[in-house]
Amino acid sequence: MDPPENNIPSSHDEETQEHRETLSQSHQEDGENEAVPLIESCTQAEAGPKVIKENAVRVAFLPPAEEADLPVSESLVQGDASYSADDNSSYNDDEADIDQDIDDALDEGYMGMECTLERGFSLNEAAIARDLRYERYDEVAVKYEKSHSFSKYQPSLKHFIPVRKSSAERDEMPIDSTGLYGFVSYSWITSLMWKAYKKGLKEEDVPICSKYDMCDYNTDRFEAMWNEEVKRKGKDGASLQRVVWRFLRTRLIVALTFFMITLIMGFVGPTIFMRFLITWLSTDEPVTTGIIWTVGLIFSEFIRIIIFGVVWSISYRTGVRLRAACLGLVYKKLMRMSSLGNKSIGEVINLFANDAQRIYDFVVLGPLIIGGPVVAIGGVIYILWLLGPWALFGMLTFLLFYPFQYGISRLTGYLRRRTVTVTDERVRMMNELLTCVKLIKMYAWEKSFASSITEIRKRERHLLEKSAYVQSISLAMAPTVPVIAAIVTFLAHIGAGYNLTAAQAYSLMSYMVRLRGMLHYVPYSVPAIIEGTISLVRFKSILLMDELEPYLKTPQDPDTAVVLDQATLAWDAVSSFKKKKNKKRRNKKDGITPADQLMPKVVDLKHIDVLFDLCLSIKKGELIAVCGGVGAGKSSFISALLGHMRLQSGQVYLQGTCAYVGQQAWIMNASFRENILMGEAFDAKRYYRVIYACNLTQDVGAMPAGDFTEIGERGINLSGGQKQRLSLARALYANRDIYLLDDPLSAVDAHVGSHIFQWVIKGALRNKTTVFVTHQLQYLPLCDRVVYLREGNIAELGTHSSLVEDNKEYAGLYRTHMETVENKEKESSKTEETDAGGRQRQDSVISGGSSINGYQKNSPEKSPVKEVKKKPEDGQLITEEKLEKGDIPLSTYNWYIKAAGGYIISTLVILTFAANVGSTAFSSWWLSMWLSAGSGNTEVVVGNGTVISDNIADNPDLFMYQTVYGCLILVILGTSLIRGFAFMKTTLKASSSMHDQVFVKVFRSPMSFFDTTPSGRIINIFSRDMDEVDVRVPMTMETFLQNIWLITSSLVFVCLVFPHFLPFLVVLAILFLFIRSIFRIGIRDFKRMENVSRSPMYSHVSTTVNGLATINAYGKQEMFTKKFMVLFDENTCVFFLFNCAMRWLAIRLDLLALLVMSITAILSLILRGSVEASFAGLALAYAAQLSGIFQYTVRLSTETEARFTSVQRISNYTKCLASEAPAIIESKRPDSNWPKYGRISYRNVQLKYRPDTPLVLKGITFDIDSLEKIGVVGRTGSGKSSLGVALFRLVELAGGSVRIDGVDISVLGLEDLRSRLSIIPQDPVLFIGTVRYNLDPFEKYTDEAVWSALEQTYMKEKIANLPLKLNAPVIENGENFSVGERQLMCMARALLRNNKILFLDEATAAIDTETDSKIQRTLQEAFKACTMITIAHRLNTVMACSRILVLDDGKVVEFDTPRNLMANSHSAFAKMVEAAESSLLL
After folding, report:
1. Of 910, 1059, 923, nearest to 986 (Cα)?
2. What are phi and psi of 67, to 5 degrees?
3. DSSP state, 784?
């Protein structure tokens, strides 16, 4: 193809008419062909190349054709360019050549790699295995069908068949096919527990989730019920609690029925069998009577244990089902929204992280609260019958406990609601911090953000302390209430002159202990109900959020694609204002801290009209350009066509499917190929045509594993241009009817842009309807029509030529562009993209990531594809989360103890538990002594004689016994309060210390850590793991320590009364240790798997929320929902197994505790007469106490260890993460006015991004003088952005040095260095807060200085028109400002800092030409007195520079003035300019 002659038509009308005729001719020639010949699907035969095994891992990309080395837009001429029929035919010839190249390559096996494999995009064997596992969910899953027949209960009723033969596949959950024995004993999990002990558990050992517990099944059922509720009651009257009741009522009623049976058995044992057994001990009745009472006592306890296991078995499954249903429904709701409205990403993630557990606890623990009142009523009746009305004083203690507990629960709920709000705020802040961490580091803003997080954490800790203390008092009071009640009962009874026997006392005490067992659940049940209710309210707030009402209609004219008929559209805008009490708090202070800026806000939604009275009709196949200034409404125009806005008036018609390319590309954490396919079937020929059309050939070639290379979150390892072209390739491959392109060429240079314009917009999409938003005016003459927007209105509409003739604003804008060209300030190649390949490391210092895999080498223009052999494993970027094995190391416990205050403090706290439990135990022992003393041989007159009294009320030491016994109430209460306060303080000190340590460690980590670690994994640490450490670990540990002392006191009493019990105790201890030591391994492994399985789910939710617009545009809601369901099911599976494993252990240990009671009862039977009834009763009462508490304590020890996995994870982050250099090195601090001159010197600088990656800067040496303006250009991978990386020390040098004003920057603290430099990034970053907070987080500058900076960046008018001006809110990601406005605010930020050195990283990509020219003038004037380094994007920013630095392959090629370089026609720079000009459309 020879370049056509430059041919400038005399008028725009002629050009446009000729262009229309060309298009028409092209359409006629195509005839009945597919709409997009370039990306048409090949047949199965065509798509099935011969795959050569030795090439099975070769890179999948197109070998560049000869023509690809030349400028691809040769058919586009200078001046007002147009296509001729010859041009179109030459394009078709090119297309035919490309097709032939693709066919040849596929036949030879060089491309496609594993294109015939379904899982060709998997990175490694583990990923393939995971894909296969995920596919099993589809095979196993059952679809929910509404049924009113009894058959729906059949799967559950089958569990009551005594023994069932398992028919499930090996990888299916065994519980679905287990019978009654397995159901009550949890024997179905024994094989997994044994395997864990023998080999440890791996992911593949775990069965897949039960089909009845799957997220999809339960979500469908719950959604149907919720929809019925909304339909019946309306949105305002709909009750989520009512729907939850309908969802679980059958299973809940059955569980509560079985629970009542356990309560009855628990009542019968001590009140009947134990009382008669103790009575028998002091009589001469036959042994058979004693045997009957002993067997009855043992049997009733055995039944209670078994039935209680059934209760948990039912409740666990009910809990996981409601948990899955609620979160599945929330996710599906998110899929129907285009934005989160007044919710933040952090708040949503917190919903999935913490509220999921609270919903589960709500179902499992909440219903147990019914046990307290039932047992209390039974107790009242029993005591009245046993001791008479005076004893009711004791029951009054129980009755008073419930109002006390209610007050505690209300207070807990209130504190919990406040805590959750602050936790949401902290998680949201952390999420934002992780998203913007690179900018924060480069601006040295760590302290500002750290102070904000610290302030939020301080408020959170304050609330946690209150909540924990209240909870601790509740927990401490639960076991003491029965003891205090017994003391009051006995004192009142004896004080009234009645006698008290050992049988009466210890049967009542044993019943009180059973009552305590029920009350034990109250401190858990009440908060579970309160917190579950709060969670349901939070879920409901999401479910009731307004979905966008579909307003897109189908036009009547079949030839029309889009019609806007007087359409006025609005966005949901967030307005916020601080609560009054926060205002008062701030008024007390001199200033407003950054943390105050981020205090909880009252958020309200309102609609703000942004597009007004739009009238436009677009025919099918038409190419419409949309242009306008910053904030004119261009992106909103695209959103309006996608249906993502609110239609206030008028109509919007759209016919056909849409593809969308956003202004900021949305990239998934998946392989390069998977990002393009996005769930579509792989078609090799179509795929490679797209790769070529989007100029991605060389990019894929340079990646470690070709298109199997894993792309990090937010495209962290892609350049800005690569991300945009990848997004474009996704749209092209989707093959839709209407293409909505929001400024897709802003991130690519003119050469690549013209290639994309020719091959994609004018080629592949030539028969498609395309709406093309752009700031690059050179393409407008080639569009069918131009829409010029101003302030949300269509100011001008028509062909390019007619608009120029009208001589209005558009004509002025275009002439300005032409004058710029004539003045030689021509648009330059964005040299990062010149060579048609993209950087595979960071393209912009801020927008991209560090070089993760070190693939920066310049791809040769004609690298033979056959020689490239790469393994898919090489392209794995994100490191797998390490699954810890073995015991929790002692160092973890040691770290926790030290964080809590050290060994002395911890020992003192444990002793407070001993004092509390000891006082209750002593009260029981004192009672035995009193009962044993009897009447003290006091003689009383009976009739005419005297006999020795058997009434303890006649004891002469009665007052002493009563006083000591009564004072014990005060001792018990006092030690409870002291214990609660001490434990709360130490555990929260530990968690806060751990939070601060891990936060500092993560925040001080180098960028490589953030690039290779998914944000979901880090958020997991700061949300769920911190929640575990803040709340769950202390609660579990407190109960564990309390019960350890209770068990110790029980065994001591039994052994003191029956020394013969000691041998049995040794045997039982060995048996107990054997069971625990073996099977705690499985429990711990399940907990670790559950921890790890959460991270992918959180990452997926975060990715989904960020990409809602793209997902909805492509209609991929089902694909993403399905993936979420699978990820959630994976978590549900190990979560359920963990809880079942705990219950498996519990039921076996309960039976072991039953042995203790059985042996004690038998010993009392055998030793009747040699042991006093009062002490035998004491031993029996405490042995009976062991039955429930023993298993629970052992389970708590295992659970505590399991929950300590969260502490271990935090500990590992704290100890294992590498840190950057110190922020400040006192001995090396520079002068306050450094750098004074701004001289920069690079000496033999060598840089590599990781130790195992190649050098990207290879010994470069150059000097920049004071106040010089340097332009940096070079081919892909030449090392331009690495100059900035070295300057800001994001990566430490491998060799050489960088000096600023003669100071070696490697010896300085990072804060001292980075705070003296400024950067304007390619991708604008704004934080949640206010406009002022974004510009000046440290509040160093006056309002006048801030307004001045805004004025210089042409944002003053915009901000001044906002209601709150500088205090106007900025929402997450700055979404309430356009991309261009965000970029201008980033410039204002740099202007405000006014540093001596400024690094511009393609900072004007999202700004229109007119504003750009103004900004360039501002930069030249405002930064006149500073050294400026510019990575070139637009040529005028380079041509105006003092000197130009040309890099190639990490080395300096040229460094001279633009004049000298252009004078030498053989210079690399001159050749670049020539190549750019040949592809530049004017």
Report:
1. 910
2. -65, -25
3. S
Nearest to 1275 by CA among 784, 969, 968, 856: 856
Q: Which two tokens stand for residue 985?
A: 């303080």
- CA neighbours within 13 Å on the CB side: how many for 880? 11
On whether the pTM is more than 0.85, the answer is no
- CA–CA gap between residue 361 and residue 365 (Å, rounded): 5
Indicate the burial class of 743 (C-beta count within 10 angstroms; 0-12, 13-18, 19 or more).
buried
**Residue 31's pLDDT band (cuts 50, 70, 90):** very low
State the SS3 of 896-939.
HHHHHCCHHHHHHHHHHHHHHHHHHHHHHHHHHHHHHHCCCCCE
Structure-token match 């001791």, residue found: 387
Report the distance separating Cα 756 and Cα 685, nearest Å: 19
Tokens of 1137: 């197994």
Q: Which amino acid is at 430?
A: M
What contacts 1314, CB < 8 A, 6 or more positions away? 441, 442, 443, 444, 1288, 1289
Bridge-based pairing state of the strands 1397-1401 and 1369-1370: unpaired
- 3-state secondary structure (DSSP) of residue 1319: strand
Chain-centroid distance, C-alpha 868 = 38
Q: Which residues lie closer than 8 Å to 254 by C-beta, 6 or more apart?
A: 314
d(CA 522, CA 195): 36
DSSP string, 1005-1070: S-HHHHHHS-HHHHHHIIIIIHHIIIIIHHHHHHHHHHHHHHHHHHHHHHHHH-TTHHHHHHHHHH
Number of Cβ within 10 Å of residue 1068's Cβ equals 18
DSSP secondary structure, 824-854, as one string: T-PPPP-TTSTTS---SS-SSTTTS---SS-
pLDDT tens digits along 319-372: 999 999 999 999 988 888 777 766 777 778 778 877 888 889 889 988 888 877
Cα–Cα distance measured from residue 324 to residue 940, given in angstroms and rounded to the nearest whole number: 71
- Check if the beta carbon of residue 1164 is closer than 8 Å to that of residue 287: no
**Residue 791 Cα distances to 172, 349, 795, angstroms:** 59, 36, 9
Q: How many CB atoms lie within 10 A of CB 93?
A: 12
- The token duo for 879 is 């490191």
The one-letter code for the residue type at 987 is T
pLDDT in tens, 765-778: 888 899 999 877 88
Kindly report the length of the chain.
1482
Of residues 555 and 271, more confidence is placed in: 555
Q: What is the DSSP string of 623-683?
A: EEEEEESTTSSHHHHHHHHHT-SEEEEEEEEE-S-EEEE-SS----SSBHHHHHHTTSPP-
Q: How far is CA 708 from CA 641, 673, 815, 1395, in A?
A: 34, 6, 46, 43
Strand partners of residue 1258: 1246
Q: Which residues contact 914 (CB under 8 A, 6 or more apart)?
A: 1045
Alpha-helical runs (H) found in 1217-1268: none
Alpha carbon distance 595, 429 (integer Å): 10
Range among 382-386, 1120-1124, 1254-1258 with highest mean pLDDT value: 1120-1124
Q: Residue 142 burial by CB count (10 A; 0-12/13-18/19+): exposed, middle or buried? A: exposed
What was the pLDDT predicted at 1052? 83
pLDDT at 771: 92
Ranking 61-70, 204-213, 406-415 by mean pLDDT, the lowest is 61-70
Give CA angle at 1046 (1040, 1050), nearest 5°: 140
Question: Rounded CA gap, 283 and 452, in Å?
Answer: 74
Q: What are phi and psi of 730, to 5 degrees?
A: -60, -45
Is the CB of residue 756 less than 8 Å from the CB of residue 694?
yes
* Dist. CA 837–CA 755, nearest whole Å: 12
